[in-house]
Amino acid sequence: MDPYSSSSASSGSSGPSTEAIMDQLKNQLAQAYAEEFLETVRGKCFTKCITKPGTSLSGSESSCVSRCVDRYIEATGIIGRALFSSQR
C-alpha cells in the first residue's frame, strides 16, 4: 500500500468533496483578506493619525483613527461592489 492510499479510498471514497474544498478555500481567502485589511488600516491610519506615539491615544488621535477606518471600510466596499458588478 502506498502512502497516499487509505482504506476509505478502496471503498469508493475519493477524499474531501469539492464543496468542502471550496468552503476551505473561501475561509482561507476571508482570513487572508481580513489580515491584509487590518495590516493596511493599521499602517495607513497609524501613520496618518498618531503624531506622538505614547501609552494612550488623545481624543483627536482616537477620532482620526475612527474616521480613517470608516473611510477605508467604505472605500473597500465601493471597490468590491464595482468589481462584482463588472463581472456580470
Automatic annotation (TrEMBL):
The keyword Mitochondrion appears for this protein: yes
A GO biological-process term: protein insertion into mitochondrial inner membrane
Membrane topology (UniProt): Peripheral membrane protein
GO cellular component: mitochondrial inner membrane; mitochondrial intermembrane space chaperone complex
Localization: Mitochondrion inner membrane; Mitochondrion intermembrane space
Pfam hit, one: zf-Tim10_DDP
Major subcellular location class: mitochondrion
GO molecular function: metal ion binding
Record keywords: Chaperone, Disulfide bond, Membrane, Metal-binding, Mitochondrion, Mitochondrion inner membrane, Protein transport, Translocation, Transport, Zinc
Location of the Tim10-like domain: 24-83
Free-text domain note: The twin CX3C motif contains 4 conserved Cys residues that form 2 disulfide bonds in the mitochondrial intermembrane space.
The protein's role, per its UniProt record: Mitochondrial intermembrane chaperone that participates in the import and insertion of some multi-pass transmembrane proteins into the mitochondrial inner membrane. Also required for the transfer of beta-barrel precursors from the TOM complex to the sorting and assembly machinery (SAM complex) of the outer membrane. Acts as a chaperone-like protein that protects the hydrophobic precursors from aggregation and guide them through the mitochondrial intermembrane space.
The family this protein is said to belong to: Belongs to the small Tim family.
Quaternary organization: Heterohexamer; composed of 3 copies of TIM8 and 3 copies of TIM13, named soluble 70 kDa complex. Associates with the TIM22 complex, whose core is composed of TIM22.
Protein name (record): Mitochondrial import inner membrane translocase subunit
Annotated source species: Acorus calamus (Sweet flag)
